[in-house]
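Methods — Computational structure assignment.
A single polypeptide chain was analysed. Its primary sequence is given first, followed by the predicted tertiary structure written as structure tokens.
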Amino acid sequence: MPRRPVNVHRAYHAHVYFDADTVDQARALCEEAARRFGISMGRVHEKRVGPHPRWSCQLAFAAGDFERVVPWLDEHRGGLDVFVHGLSGDALKDHTDFAYWLGNDWPLDLRQFQQD
């Protein structure tokens, strides 16, 4: 039987993307996830923040919550796109190698993570 790789992530972020037409839907989704799973909900940013090309709201959760939170988000996102990434301590890899999408993927602005 193949061994599962060691999980290098101590925690995860899920960034729910939205626009002016879906801000209320995104807020409700994030609030429900925070309530249901006891996870941390960040601000609902009605502007681009960090590497994110769209408005977003961040959900932060421990690695142990991954198997409950991510499938629930996928089932309840209602067409919203969600960017999920691990937190390994290497921000560039977290946003590339350790990342995936629920829904459509969007190009991130990774310049802040790259060294000259």
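Note: Residues 23-37 form the longest helix (15 residues).
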